[in-house]
Amino acid sequence: MLGEHGRGITHAVFTAPAQGLARIGVRPNHVTIAGTIITVALAAGLLATGHWIIAPIALGIVLFADSLDGTLARLTGESSDFGAFLDSTLDRVGDGAVFASIMFALAQLPPSPMRTWLMTVGLISIVGTATVPYARARAESLGAQAKGGIAERTDRLVIALVAVFFVGVGLPLWLLGVALSWIAFATCVTVVQRVRSARRELSR
Q: Which residue numbers are catalytic?
């Protein structure tokens, strides 16, 4: 939902930078790969090691710039099926790095009911985060559409990173538990929504 509303803003913000990159010969796929490398490095180097103030801010900036490659592709006329495939595939790598890094940091906590709760909903979130885009991709391979849902990629990342930041500045850890619980629930609902949408189309 957040991603749908933010596309117009990001397109306006990144048109000028994309024009500058085009002039120096940077290709859209280069931007896609660089963005993923930066995301993984920030997640592993900062998020996993407990730097929960700077890490969400830095990752939030990278997330906001996620549409730069698409803007560049439209400006240069280099939009392609492979570019879309690469972007979608590497998005999964970035998402996995973010949530895995959060889980790694949480695994360092002393054993407690709180840690058990956080690890449980975190693992469900990771599985759901991988299943939501797969459901769409598989439906599209069969000629159906399975878009939308209550927890798209931007929603999941923003909720997780904002909760991490709040915990980083001193708010209680249960706030992250609430955020991960919502992500776990919402991804499961989104998968069901996409399955139902694909079923309706494929049964026609």
A: 91
